[in-house]
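Exercise (ungraded).
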Amino acid sequence: DTGVSQDPRHKITKRGQNVTFRCDPISEHNRLYWYRQTLGQGPEFLTYFQNEAQLEKSRLLSDRFSAERPKGSFSTLEIQRTEQGDSAMYLCASSLEGLADHNEQFFGPGTRLTVL
Amino acid sequence: AQSVAQPEDQVNVAEGNPLTVKCTYSVSGNPYLFWYVQYPNRGLQFLLKYITGDNLVKGSYGFEAEFNKSQTSFHLKKPSALVSDSALYFCAVRDRHSGNTPLVFGKGTRLSVIA
């Protein structure tokens, strides 16, 4: 399968612990996005990368959240000092964008985080 | 600011009947519009998009959507629903003229096709 993959698929942690999620995009895609989805809501944008550069961060991305894409391939999203409100599905997506900037994003299956 | 409204949380339709899932949007400029579908335990899958040109866009699995600029709508349609179409559908918008703005998604509409 050459789609977007995410690891782990599920994570249960205790409040105050740190967690890290990984996303492997489609290999030739230059853009990588992170979203958060809670029950009954659509995906909410968190941040995105163009190759290894992080170009935009949502105000939803508090100081406890950090994302990296060090070599322009896979990405990690770390949440420090988790809170119960961080419980959500974290989605990764990738796309191949040129000047037109309207190509579809391909989504991974998501990582479901539960903070106890 | 961009926004998307999906006014129906749930749409029920009998198998074989036509279906419509509604979407309206708000952007300051001209939009790029997308529909995605989410099946249980699977990631969002792209269905179709409107960029420019013909207002009727055809996509995967027999779905189509009509862009209506005057009504700022992009309703998803299918002439004959299948039970396998039952899923969660999301409309999304990006403002074409606002640089690298992210996609903004609606809350989703759950489609239930009854045999």
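Further reading is listed at the end of the chapter. For now, observe: Residues 22 and 75 of chain B are 4 Å apart (CA to CA). Chain B is about 0% helix and 50% strand.
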